[in-house]
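Subject — a protein and its fold

Tokens — whole-number codes for backbone shape
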Amino acid sequence: MFVTVHLFLILVYNFVNWNGRNMFRFNNISKEYRGHFWEKRFVALDNVSLSVGEGEVVGFLGANGAGKTTSIKIIMNFISPTSGEIEFDKKLGKNSVERFSNIGFFPERPYFYPHLTGREFIGYLGQLNKVEKSIIEKRLAFWAEKLRLTFALDRKIRSYSKGMLQRLGFISANIHDPKLIILDEPLSGLDPIGRKEFKDTLKYLSENGKTIFFSSHIVADIEEVCKKVIVLESGKLMYQGSISELIEKDSHTYVTIRVKTSVQPDKDLYLKSQVVDLSQDVYEYEVEKKLQDKFLNEILKLSGNILFLGVINPTLEEIIYKIKN
């Protein structure tokens, strides 16, 4: 009886936590590649479990070769995992055809038909997604204006610059108004203005209820746009969760202390120092939080004056580096 009730509670828990909350999730996904039979298997993904909730903007971080693109290929059903499974929310559709009609995908290395104009290309993709011509034209006008591409819609794609191709590809991923948008390195190769435009567009889509999952190896982009991050390293899941919680957990570890002292404190009490004003004997020290009191007592013993004390908040990039090492 106890076992039956226990299993029932587990099923209820899984249903409550799954239903309507995750657009997709990996359940212990592994992917191995092997060339010749005498070569050692290459493990691209190693027992990875992750999830992306409805309405979230999730950054997918990892160095080149970490397993990001392999993960995205599995989501898009371009390849199959060696083991494990991927589950999709029923809101995306009951079968693969319905599901992929609700997913917008922009690969890292897209292919564009160079002999078509931008307008023809988007029209063609819209028709493949069974979008009415009038709706295609309306959405194209909206996105082209938002991404500053209207001037080039009637030019051949072969004349487009890298930034223009990125904009056109982004429009193609959104022309059918998908519920889930998957982007593989969408900001790669863009100039600073283009990067800002794309990040503003991602924020706009998020505000309008879209679920966005995008990979990048540039931590600053993730920190600016996302609230949640997933970190892979050599095919293994290193972290998934809130960026704010990750930063908060690692915050308050170090403090900056500025002092006026003619005698330097013991080097074991601080990590690094710099001169602020040599003529006034003003120095700034980076001190571990746990050594703060000892350092302050040392300064007072040396007849120094404490001018400033502040917490050092690490960047997401610094925290990710610590996770990987």
About this structure: Residues 247 and 315 are 7 Å apart (CA to CA). Residues 252-318 form one domain. The chain has two domains: 2-248, 252-318.
